[in-house]
Amino acid sequence: MDAQRALLDELMGTARNLTEEEKKGYREIRWDDREVCGPFMVRFCPHDLFVNTRSDLGPCPKIHDLKLKESFEKSPRHDAYVPRFEAELAQYCEKLAMDLDRKVKRGRDRLAQDVDTPSPGPISAEKSEQLSVLEEKIKKLLEQIETLGEAGKVDEAEALMRKVDILNAEKTALTQNDKVSLTQEKKMALCEICGSFLVANDAAERTQSHVSGKQHIGYGMVRDFISEYKAAKEKKREEERLAREKEAEERRKQREKENDSQRENEESGRERDRHRERDHEREKSRGRSGRVSMDGERGFAWSNSHHRNGRDWDRERFRRSGEMPRDRARGRSRSRSPVRRGRK
């Protein structure tokens, strides 16, 4: 019947039986609505684990729909909503686990108390009859001892008291044997998974029946999911930590690279400055050498010019006065009196 209803919902929609008026205010349920159970979408709903058991949580107040779950798994937003739904499920499971751990603790305390002070159980008819006989004998002997004590027969009274002690020992032995056998028969154990009490050394069939029961399997799923969720969360934190360390290491290397580049640029700048200083010094040295050379040439030119200017001044002075230096006059006279060769 449910399969047919699901087939009709798939073919005709969930609003197929609504009237036109009802369809006007009808809204199609989607997997991301608040009315839909998120844990059921991503894993399981705890309300479905303990149906008809002592730990039954009752029906889930939210919608469980396999069609919506299939739509969620095919949705492009699936990966974005998985952490959200898993966190919701983990919160619910941790609450169940905390309640269960308190129950297990109470069970341990109860077992420890039962071991320390075993509760008396019903005594068998045979042992009960034996105890009655012993108590009757002890009672009669005590009456005789009292009578003998009043009569002053101390020795006889002491002999009867020794018989009373023997009968009391037999009575204690019967009681202790019964308690030991009762304790061995009813020795209990506690299941750490679901908190249920079990009979120790019970038959394999009953133990297997417990392990395959809804309550044991359900709490096993709850505990397994919590362990898996915490491990995944821890792994994610570790990956994030390693990513941060890697990013910090990359930033450090980038800073070192930038610092090395800056130092290289500064060194190159200082080297260029040293080259410019050397070039400047060479230019200054060449300038000083050029000025010395030019000064020497100017001195030589001034000396020659002064010498020429002096001769010119003397010639001008003698020209104006009509006198000539003797040496020059003689030289001129000699130069102006050519020797006439071949003439006498």
From TrEMBL:
Biased amino acid composition, Basic and acidic residues: 233-286, 310-330
Give positions of region: Disordered.
Answer: 233-344
**Residue ranges that the Swiss-Prot or TrEMBL entry lists as coiled coil:** 124-177
Q: Which family does it belong to?
A: Belongs to the Luc7 family.
A single Gene Ontology CC annotation of this entry is:
U1 snRNP
A Pfam family cross-referenced in the UniProt record is LUC7
One example of the protein's molecular function in GO is: mRNA binding
Give yes or no: UniProt keyword Transcription. no
**Where does this protein come from, organism-wise?**
Apostasia shenzhenica
**Annotated protein name in UniProt:** Luc7-like protein 3
The domain of life for this entry's organism is Eukaryota
Q: Name one GO biological process term.
A: mRNA splice site recognition
| Chain intervals with Basic residues compositional bias | 331-344
